Every structure is written in C-alpha cells, then in structure tokens.
Amino acid sequence: MHKVELLSPAGNLEKLKIAIDFGADAVYGGVSHFSLRIRSGKEFTMESFKEGIDYAHARGRKVYATINGFPFNSQLNLLEKHILAMAALEPDAFIVATPGVLQLAHKLAPQIPLHLSTQANVMNVLDAKVYYEMGARRIIAAREISLKDLKQIKAELPDLELEVFVHGSMCFAYSGRCLISTVQSGRVPNRGSCANDCRFPYELYAANPETGTLFRLEEDPGIGTYIMNSKDLNLASHIKEILDAGAVDSLKIEGRTKASYYAAITAKAYRMAIDDYYAGLEPSERYQEELNTMQNRGFTDAYLVNRPFEKHDTQSLDFTMQMGTHQVSGMVTEDGGHFLCKYTTRPGDEAEIVAPWDAVLSPYENEYGSIFERDGRWYVRFNKLVAENGREWDAVHSGNVNPIVLPGALPQYSFLRIPADGIDQSPPV
Known about the structure:
The chain is an alpha/beta fold. It has helices at residues 13-21, 38-43, 46-58, 76-88, 99-108, 125-133, 147-156, 180-185, 239-244, 260-278, 286-291; strands at residues 5-9, 26-29, 62-67, 93-96, 114-116, 136-140, 161-168, 205-208, 213-216, 232-234, 250-253, 299-300, 326-332, 338-341, 344-345, 350-354, 364-366, 369-374, 377-382, 385-386, 392-393, 396-397, 404-405, 415-419. The strands form five sheets. An eight-stranded parallel β-barrel has the order 1-2-3-4-5-6-7-11, surrounded by five helices. An eight-stranded antiparallel beta sheet has the order 17-18-19-16-24-13-14-23, with no helix packed on it.
C-alpha cells in the first residue's frame, strides 16, 4: 500500500534529528540565503546539512533541500554554484519556487527530483501541467486550494505527486504574497526575511483630508488590534477526510523557525493520526491534546476542507500568541543520561516524559530520583539535582547550561514537560 508521507520542518541539525526521531518520514531545510527561511538557512552549514542527510538516510528517511528563494540577476552565478554544491550532498529532492530556477536545477542536477514550492501558487490543472512538463515531480499546492481541486489535478496527472500543508503558521496574504514587511522594515517576505508585521498590534485612526485632522479610534475592551493576525493551521482532526480523497502524497508541517519541542510534538501528533488511519482506527482526541500543549495563535482548519468564503474564524484579533497547556521543563541530551533545563526544576518536582516515536521506556529508581509509568504516561521525579560535573543544585533554571543527571537512561531528545497550571498564561499585549 502506498502510504502518505509525513514531512516535517528542519530548522537546524537538532530539529532535523528530532523530527525524524518523533515520526517524520521526511524533512525539509536549506543552507544559505537561497532558502526561503534565511534564519534557519544560516543554522545549517554544508557540513551539518550533509550530516543531517546521512542521519536521515541511515534511518530510511528523506531530506528535501530548499532552494526556494527568488534570486536577482546579480545572484545567478552564485545560484548555479549553490545548486551544484547542494546536489553533491545527495538530498532526495530540491524544493524550488520559480520556473527559471526549476529549469536551471534540472539542467545542472538532473539526478535530483524537483518539488515545486507553494510560493508558485498552483491552484489548478493548467498550472500543474505546465510545471509537470517542465520537470516538477511534486507540487506543493497553494494553501488556498481545496480537496476537490486536488482530486481533479491528480485525475489529470496521476504521476504528479501532490503535497499539502496541514499544520503551522498561516500568512495574512494570499499564499505569502505580502509586502507589508517590505514597506515597514525593508525585509522582503518572498526573499526569506519576513518580519511578521501581520502579527503586530495596530492602532486605528480616522483622517479628514480637508482639515488634516486625525482621530484615534477607541475600541471596546477585548476586541483587540491584531487585525491581520491569522490563526495557526491545524488539520490533525481531518486526516481521514484528506486521505480518503486519494489525491495527497505528502502532508507538510510548517515551522523551520519554531522550537525543537514544536518539531517533536507536531511530528508525533500527525504520526499518530496517520498511523491510526491506516490501522482503521477512529480519530483520537489525543492529537489535539498534544498539539494544544504548544504555544499557538489559536487554531483553524482553514481552506483545504472549507472554501475561504465559508470561514469566519481564521483570525486571532486579541492576541498574537498564547501559551499551551504545558510548559517544557527540560530536554534529554544525546547521551541519554542527562537533561538540559528549559524552565525551572527543583528537588521533588515531577515532569511528564515525552519520548520519541516508538521509544521503549523502563522504570528506574535511585538516589537521583525515579522514572515511572502512571495511567499510560511516563514521568520522572527528582530527589536531587546533580550536574554532570558533580555539583548539586537547590534548583536549576533555563539559563543553567549544566547537564543534569537523570535517574535513568532516556532516549535522546526526549522532552520533560509540566502542566502550565499556575503559570501566568495571560495573552501578550
């Protein structure tokens, strides 16, 4: 049976490994300013990106290299060198956004499959056919597309792979075609440096051009001024509907600049949803429970299963970000014997363990604390906090970079989390 691919963001080498460990079939990321996420592109070097590719391939997973920026004429010679250098790393595909770059990549590296970025805004059979004939083996559809349109494209072009976004930040503008950041800060969204100006609060004014009078409009409390702030996409509860359509080959999660915990939890939640579908199980509330542990802007199922004019709940007007139900308190190091504090931990504290996909945990108890199972979940309780260098702490906080000894071995990149009850969860203003 051909199963749908789960594709996760890889903002750096650590996040690449975490996404794969937590259930992703493939990851995507890039090196340099030719990637549409400049910040994450700087997180990788050619050497570390190659290490990530090797890590994925050793586990039977794939890596797609993003070369999806929009180059100027002055950059074309450098772009050619970059394509050849990236091809030498042997990724599983290039993600490109423009017809010219697609043709150039096909000419310089014909052995590398080409995926067309969502920035190309493919919405119909005509455009899909043009790019397919130019060499695109997969199209990442525009986020405004519907399942009905995807089915029509697949019927016309059955050998063309189709990829859709199922989770992550939503852009205020049509398929990311936004100039607000360019106008206000000179940072160009479609060249990878969006400043997320749509997430800011704005004050509204009324001007009288005849008198030059300017009035500030007062708003009722609670209405908010985040007038362009889109909620986050979340289609975890629609996986059955999407896969039943038979048109989608890859489910994509947005978020190369998001935290490592985001890479883990999104991969885990959608891995559960996909596996449950193929096992014939009913959708579980657990998907949303996991996704709600993260910070978010509120969730929407957006446009894939609804038409845009049918949706009136895609904006979050009174805040830009809210805390999730849980706070990350630690992350297990690669040696599995220690954790790095991400919040605050004291002797006597108890935290839930979020382990990678299919990890098998074992109970432990010693002078440092205990690892145990309760109600189908695993926890760690600390008797004392001892650093790798032997120093004992009364408490460790997020600024403490000393690895702290665990009571027993845990899988690398496991997370420790605590309920957010008691933590100030008031939305930022």
